[in-house]
Amino acid sequence: MAATLIIGGTGYIGKKILEASVKAGHPTFALVRESTASDPVKGKLIEIFKNLGVNVLYGDLQDHESLIKAIKQVDVVISTVSRGQIPEQAKIIAAVKEAGNVKRFLPSEFGNDVDRSQNVVEPAKSAYADKIKIRRAIEAEGIQYTYVSCNCFAGYFLPTLAQIGAPAPPREKVTIFGDGNAGAVYNKEDDIATYTINSIDGPRTLNKTLYIRPPGNVYSFNELVTLWENKIGKTLEKTYVAEEKLLKDIQDAPIPLNVLLAITYATFVKGDQANFEINTASGVEASELYPE
């Protein structure tokens, strides 16, 4: 089993991937900052990791020697760092290249496929550009990789029916962006983690994008609303936000709302998660690859 290092393992999807790695039997390492260990909440999470058998290593992206030391102990490096740290993954790339022992690197992606999302607008476009830059740097250094395109986190979007800023799913009124017919992909976080770990040491995902896009997980917004209406036994009042109105809202909204709205535009209006066929020369679909 491949020894695996997760960088960002105390984050939203990082902790799921770390747990999946342990469950699959991989020797699992987590690189955490010493300041994280002293955090009341994340410190408890680190103790849980230790009890699971995770090898907790202390280091930082800014500390090259700690990166090298951690990376030299593993076969696979998985980054799940937050959006703000995406450019700093260049430091991981440099360390992986110097260490020379890593068989595969999975950068922090976990969203739309940035190389295939043709309709993203600013300011999300710049965030996507950062991920694209990291991809090209990995390839330029000759580092073996897998990119994970997991699309929507079901646990983030579905509890509120993707109503921005809402604390609960709608009971009276619902906002639908565009005409509501574009398909989006909703995956459980535990499934994303399992598929990610399944992909780390098999030849079929080497130097390819792993698309987590099971056909049964693709829904238009209109379909989601209908499912919810059937569940609550009530028809909701629907407000459709036209494409032009949403584009203006993106321009007028403050950070980080404008980023979220820009991703909403690409995903729910333009259908960038499901509006293309997977190129089998460069990508594979997870549920086909791992039907179990």
Automatic annotation (TrEMBL):
The keyword DNA-binding does not apply. One of its GO terms (molecular function) is oxidoreductase activity, acting on NAD(P)H, oxygen as acceptor. This is NmrA-like domain-containing protein. Residues 5-291 form the NmrA-like domain. Keywords: NADP, Oxidoreductase. GO terms for biological process: lignan biosynthetic process. It comes from Citrus sinensis.
